[in-house]
Write a structure and sequence with these properties.
The protein is mostly helical. The protein is about 55% helix and about 5% strand. A 3-stranded antiparallel sheet has the order 1-3-2. The longest helix is centred in the middle third of the chain and has 28 residues.
């Protein structure tokens, strides 16, 4: 087992899912799907000044709804919200902390107003993450995460990579499920829900 390339295995886990199961399922995402609100009390990415949550974060024309602490139960979230969370909270913040991306956070990020723009952001952050993980090599995976990961600072970067893999697989599978739900919900019901 000592000849195993753990860096390659960790990258392959995510890249296999991305190329064989996920990314093609996101192609053709429409703006209607992106902001579709299938349940009451939902959080989304919205034009500035129209948010429904206690906190509306973002630096551009769009803001993302959220609250700290998160309500119990947490609100249902749209595809736009879930993509915003993955792009910013899962990838961009980590890319900034570990791989040289310009610093960002939920407050300073410019959220996408359209599905196409959000997918372009997702693709860019994913590519940065995957290249960053590759740049770690084997030795870098054993290095501590550092202060950027708060209480997990002493954990190895390999643990962070595994966590990000889980987060991406989990949240982007939810996006695919919402696309399926949208497709199989008749137009009248979609209009009534929104």
């Amino acid at each position: 087992m000592t000849d195993q390339n753990w860096n390659l295995l960790l990258r392959d886990q995510l890249a296999w899912h991305w190329t064989r199961q996920l990314r093609a399922r996101l192609d053709g995402l429409t703006d209607d799907e992106y902001v579709w609100e299938p349940a009451p009390g939902r959080w989304s990415v919205r034009p500035r000044g129209t948010g429904v949550a206690p906190v509306r974060a973002g630096s551009g024309a769009m803001t993302i709804d959220f609250a700290m602490p998160q309500p119990d139960p947490p609100p249902f979230t749209t595809i736009a919200w879930r993509l915003g969370h993955v792009i910013v909270g899962v990838l961009a913040v980590r890319n900034a902390a570990h791989f040289g991306r310009a610093p960002t956070d939920y407050q300073s990020f410019e959220y996408a107003p359209t599905a196409a723009a959000a997918l372009a952001q997702l693709d860019a952050e994913y590519a940065t993450w995957l290249a960053g993980v590759e740049s770690l090599g084997e030795a870098g995976l054993a290095r501590p995460c550092g202060q950027a990961e708060g209480p997990y600072a002493e954990r190895p970067l390999a643990a962070l990579v595994l966590h990000i893999n889980r987060e991406l697989i989990h949240h982007l599978a939810e996006v695919c499920l919402l696309r399926d739900l949208y497709l199989h919900t008749d137009r009248q019901t979609r209009r009534e829900a929104s």
